[in-house]
Amino acid sequence: MRRTKLLLAIIVVLVTTFFGFVIFQQQELSDYVRPLLLPMVLVMYCASGYSKSTYFFLFLLLYSLAEFLTVAYYNSALTELFEDPLYYLCNTLYIFAYIFLTIEVLRNMELSKIFSRFSIHLIILLILDIYCVMLVTDVAVKSGALVYTVDHVLEFTYNVVIMALLTITLVNYLHRDTKKAMNLLLGSLCIVFSEVIQVAYYYVSEITILSIAYNLLLILAFVFFYLQIGMSTESSMQNKPAVPTEVEA
């Protein structure tokens, strides 16, 4: 318990320091603080008394590695020989991190019941997903930042994985209607909105408020993801024993 409280205090200090640097436009300093946040969350997760999930652990681990490599990418004097592979590696790690989180949600879902019950919902969500992926990818393409074919493929794949995560957590919530499912959905929503704002920040205009917004949403996402780890996948109503009714005399 003491270790958990100490780790939580360290994370709060790091988050406060990080946003202080972002607000005062000390981008280089904030870039060095941000990669420390996820490893601390990972350590806190491992030190917690909750049962551990391999997929959620891999999600935190790969995301932490990607954060470290991202700082190396933006703040190191790399030659073109190493710069492009590092960029692709960072984004690949982010993609696989989200895939493992998606698997974590999927493994507790009753897919046969979901397909039969929410078939219309899934079709509508699929159409919305395609539209959102094309819209966000188009903004990135028109910015001129995507040069090679592999850049377009990576950007497209990244957006598909993000939207798939949101769709699956939404369907999971509709099916389960539990606090755990709600936290997963809220975390995914924060991730999606964070990514959309981040696209606007990097490809449209580097306004400080956009940087604050997408970083805040990203941190909130991990708060929701962490909160759900100790919760049950089943509804409290499902686990509640039936109360016998009184028989009138």
End-to-end Cα distance, whole Å, is 53 Å
Q: Using only CA atoms, what is the Rg?
A: 20 Å
Query: What is the N-to-C succession of helices and strands?
Result: HHHHHHHHHH
Q: Helix/strand-derived class?
A: mainly alpha
Strand content: under 5%
pLDDT < 50 stretches: 236-249
Query: What's the overall geometry?
Result: globular
- The average pLDDT is 83
Helix content: over 70%
The number of domains is 1
The beta-strand count equals: 0
Major sheet description: none
Description:
This protein has 249 residues and is an all-alpha fold. The protein has ten helices and no strands. The protein has helices at 2-23, 27-47, 54-75, 80-106, 111-117, 119-142, 149-176, 179-203, 208-227, 236-239. α4 packs parallel to α7, α6 packs antiparallel against α7 and α8 packs antiparallel against α9. The chain is globular and about 50 Å long.
Concise description?
Helices cover 80% and strands 0% of the residues. The chain is mainly α and 249 residues long. The radius of gyration is 20 Å and the shape is globular.
Give the arrangement of secondary structure elements.
Elements: H1 2-23, H2 27-47, H3 54-75, H4 80-106, H5 111-117, H6 119-142, H7 149-176, H8 179-203, H9 208-227, H10 236-239
